[in-house]
Amino acid sequence: MKIIVCIKQVPDSSDVAIDPESGTLIRMGQNAKTNPYDLYAIETALRIRDEVGGTVTALTMGPPQAEEMMRDAYMMGVDETVVMSDRKFAGSDVLATSYTLSQGIKMLEGADLIICGKQTTDGDTAQIGPAIAEHLDIPHVAWVKSLEEVNDRFIAVVHQMSGHVQVSEMPYPCLITVDKDIFVPRLPSYKTKLSTREKEVRFLSFADLPDKNLSRFGIIGSPTQVDKMFPPEAAEGQVHIEGNSVEKANRLVALLSEAKIL
Amino acid sequence: MNFIHFDVDKCSLCHVCIEKCPFDALHMGEKGIEVGEACRMCGICVKACPEGAIRFEQKAGQADKSQWSGILVFAEQEQGEIHPVTLELIGEARRLGGPKGYEVNVALIGGEGTAERAEMLKRYGVDKIYAYEHEALGSFKADSYTKVMADCITRMQPSVVLVGATALGRSLAPRLATRFHTGLTADCTKLEMRENTDLVQIRPAFGGNVMAQILSTESRPQFATVRHKVMDAPERSAVATGEVVFCEVAEEMVSSAIKVRSVHAAERSCGIEEEDVLVVAGRGVKDEKGMELVKALADVLGGQVCCTRALVEEGYGDPTRQIGLSGRTVKPKLIVTCGVSGSIQFASGMKNSECIVAIDADPEALIFNIAHYCINDDLYEVIPPLVERLKQKKEVCSHAFSLS
Ligand SMILES: Cc1cc2nc3c(=O)[nH]c(=O)nc-3n(C[C@H](O)[C@H](O)[C@H](O)COP(=O)(O)OP(=O)(O)OC[C@H]3O[C@@H](n4cnc5c(N)ncnc54)[C@H](O)[C@@H]3O)c2cc1C
Ligand SMILES: Nc1ncnc2c1ncn2[C@@H]1O[C@H](COP(=O)(O)O)[C@@H](O)[C@H]1O
To answer: Domain B272-403 is classified in which CATH homologous superfamily?
Structure first.
């Protein structure tokens, strides 16, 4: 079985602020790390491989520094890593990112199972996975919280809906996005670090892709534009609720309903 | 449909797509295959073409905005009930579309009983309710729901499609937006419509540290997901104004690669860290009776009981439910503290909660420094009427959807 996990490098802290003068983003943390939710995706892929057999390939679209993240992925035990990097991919929104990743997957001759994390901590849309599935015209299930049955013909997964859980089965090829806590991600091991030291990180650029239609990539291929960024409104002040006990209780319920907390 | 794109160089004029199209929407024209109005974006031709010459595509700037008008709301059903986020989306759609005189329509998709439930939506000021009922649509399957919604979108040609940011909505919307090659903004907290029908979408980014304003100026429809309890639901009106349109569900729309094995109610086994609502008992809770009050409050709020270390030491609290420096760190949407002084060690484990309500007898208690809503009173006096009031409110809500 061939498994592709989509992972992304994100800033190691979401501590950002808006410069009130220039309106630009000030990032506090400079360091990058693997999107924490993607570690669950890697772990799920490794477990399925170890049970059913096959290979795990980690795929990302991002700047060349993503190579560091791929070294960590090797240390967890993935077999192959691919970084899609090109200036032409810059400024991609969900549609362009998912299209670029689907092109990368086609370049790798597809996969039986594609696994994404539930969301990223920077983009935070949880949309890339289902969008990749649509580009590849394969079924998907999102928010998978546990695996019920996996073999070389199909996968059955337990996934969360608003007030209930559903168990769905799909044949390959298909895509799942996994929730955190599906499994505890393993720590990178020193032994695998040594044995994978020589392993190469493969790079793909725009020129390698089957579709050379530039209008589908990067900022040109992105229907959404970030028009501006601004700081959130300051939280409203404190409310002291007065009156007798019954009045206080009623007032609290009214205030919480108004603030849509209830 | 200007979304179906033909690659003239690859097309071998084999006619397979024309034969396979279930809607008879494809014809051989002067410059190759042409797509007619009957197209429902089902994707059969994309799959059927032996040359891979057909795909869904919308090029930037290609959308003729005047062809797209009105707002379509996706109405989610969960186990035979309409999800409450639906009403909030309808309220928001009416507000947005009002100045333009836009139609607000609803797509309701599901299994048995869907047509009946469509009737309930008539009283919320919508124009049309497109009802797709089929036994195979009883449970959510992303692929077939996408086909049904694509059918509805091609019928109505809405400028905006609103979907609840629920587990189901966030699985469906990205697939659908991708099929139409258009933009989708997740988890919008504020929407506004410009004179030229561009939707101004505002959403938090970077963990809520920044707000981003997002536009899709070149493509239609404009997709947005919105969470539950963000927008205002309209009042239920005495007269039913909406019209239910029963839509045919073609076999192709329900064919799916996904097989649903079972559906069951979610067991609430999550730890206090994942819980949305927490009620905390502190040393102000002096006996079993106090614990019962706290428990009743947690139940009516749909949350869990936790405690301070003092209460663990008193023997009333479970250590896995202790919040604070030597306990757990929590960040729920709502936390109600009852008889908790708010020591530094406790507060460090909960001060980032989205909404803090504090009930304490001591006006000087430190907890009042960090609480958003402060109730300076005896918890034994306040909790009983509070539980009563919350129960009343719940009953009113569950009546909102009743038929009559
Ligand atoms: C190293 C260290 C680590 C610690 N870690 C933790 C930790 O992880 N978590 C933790 O909780 N504590 C921790 N503590 C203990 C902490 O300092 C406090 O002692 C503890 O949080 C106090 O709990 P409390 O608020 O329930 O009790 P108290 O401080 O005794 O407060 C009780 C409150 O109830 C009010 N009250 C009394 N009767 C009523 C009534 N009828 N109606 C309404 N209000 C009433 C009082 O006005 C008072 O404000 C730690 C301490 C140390 C030294
Ligand atoms: N640039 C990227 N490269 C690879 N995978 C990605 C990328 N962006 C998002 N993903 C995958 O899609 C998931 C959801 O991301 P998002 O839609 O940004 O919240 C992530 O958990 C990853 O698995």
So the answer is: TPP-binding domain (3.40.50.1220)
Domain definitions of chain B by residue range:
4-56, 65-254, 272-403
* Integer Cα distance of B141 and B217 in angstroms: 31
Tell me the HSE value of B15 on the side-chain side, using a 13 A CA sphere: 2
- B152/B41 Cα distance (integer angstroms): 10
Contact B183, B219 (CB under 8 A): yes
What six digits make up the tokens of A27?
């990032």
Query: Does the beta carbon of B168 lie under 8 angstroms from any beta carbon of chain A?
Result: yes
> B242-270 pLDDT, tens per residue?
999 999 999 989 999 999 999 988 765 56
Domain ranges of chain A: 2-216
Determine contact, residues A172/A48, Cβ cutoff 8 Å. Answer: no
Q: Is the dihedral of CA A166, B107, B222, B38 positive or negative?
A: positive
The mean pLDDT value of chain A amounts to: 91
Residue B14 contacts A where some CB pair is shorter than 8 Å = no
CATH number listed for the domain at residues A2-216:
3.40.50.620
Nearest to B343 by CA among B397, B400, B253, B283: B283
Tell me whether residues B214 and A225 touch, CB distance under 8 A: yes
User: Is the ipTM, as predicted for this complex, more than 0.95?
Assistant: no
Measured distance CA(A228)–CA(A249) in Å, rounded: 41
